[in-house]
């Protein structure tokens, strides 16, 4: 579940579920992600964007294994493994009072820091191949690969949008190409001037 992609007013209901009549438009009971993930794994993307007032409820779900649906009167037991990701510096957010320190320490059990794509350009070819297969299948195309000079340009790119930016690029290239191999001329103009440093620095 991508917390940043859900309208703010729906986050609580999506996470914890709601009872019929809990709010305008709640015409039936709905199970939340925590109930649906019981016995399995829940991945919360962009956890740093979670509203401060909902963080206590999330902490209780993790700590006690209990949730309450919006409009509910009794706790519901749930057991799940939580994986969380964020682009936000949570330590800084804690110091600034935007993220609860108790929640931060509770979710920071096994931290995995993933360097930005620009710091691991050796991963670009494998990721590109993975996305080529995905979008060939989706669009019914047969793009076999990317030429070596083109791949060199991809590896030099700054990738401010990280892996999502690479995926979006490959999706676009596969969608508009019927050639066997994608060449330099197929890349957007900014890739022809890319260097491994941020723009303006």
Low-pLDDT parts are none
Order of helices and strands: HEEHEHEEEHHHEHHE
- Shape label: elongated
The order of strands across the largest sheet is 1-2
* Class by SSE composition: alpha/beta
Q: What separation lies between the terminal Cα atoms?
A: 35 Å
Mean pLDDT: 91
Instruction: Give the C-alpha Rg.
Output: 21 Å
Secondary structure: helix percent: 25-40%
Sketch the major β-sheet. Answer: 2 strands, antiparallel
> How many distinct helices?
8
Tally of DSSP β-strands: 8
Beta strand %: 5-15%
Task: Give descriptors for this structure.
201 residues; alpha/beta; two-stranded antiparallel sheet; two-stranded parallel sheet; 8 helices
Description:
- 39% of the residues lie in helices and 11% in strands.
- By secondary structure, the chain is an alpha/beta fold.
- A hairpin with an 8-residue loop joins strand 4 (66-67) and strand 5 (76-77).
- Helix 3 (52-64) packs across helix 5 and helix 6 crosses helix 8.
- It is elongated, with a radius of gyration of 21 Å.
- The model has no long low-confidence stretch (mean pLDDT 91).
In short:
The chain has 201 residues and is α/β, with parallel strands linked by helices. The chain has helices at residues 8-16, 33-36, 52-64, 90-95, 101-107, 124-139, 148-156, 162-176, and strands at 17-18, 30-31, 41-45, 66-67, 76-77, 81-85, 145-146, 181-182.
């Amino acid at each position: 579940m991508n917390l940043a992609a859900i309208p703010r007013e729906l986050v609580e209901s999506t996470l914890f579920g709601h009872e019929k009549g809990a709010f305008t438009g709640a015409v039936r009971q709905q199970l939340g992600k925590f109930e649906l993930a019981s016995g399995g794994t829940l991945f919360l993307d962009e956890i740093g964007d979670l509203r401060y007032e909902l963080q206590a409820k999330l902490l209780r779900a993790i700590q006690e294994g209990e949730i309450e649906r919006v409009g509910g009167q009794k706790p519901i037991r749930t057991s799940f493994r939580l994986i969380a990701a964020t682009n936000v510096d949570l330590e800084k957010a804690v110091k600034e009072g935007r993220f609860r320190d108790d929640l931060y320490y509770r979710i920071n059990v096994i931290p995995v820091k993933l360097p930005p794509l620009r710091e691991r350009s050796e991963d670009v070819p494998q990721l590109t191949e993975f996305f080529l297969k995905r979008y060939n299948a989706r669009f019914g195309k047969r793009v076999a690969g990317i030429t070596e000079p083109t791949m060199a340009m991809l590896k030099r790119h700054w990738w401010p949008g990280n892996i999502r930016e690479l995926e979006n690029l490959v999706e676009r290239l596969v969608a508009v190409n019927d050639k066997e191999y994608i060449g330099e001329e197929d890349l957007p103009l900014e890739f022809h001037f890319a260097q491994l440093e941020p723009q303006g620095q």
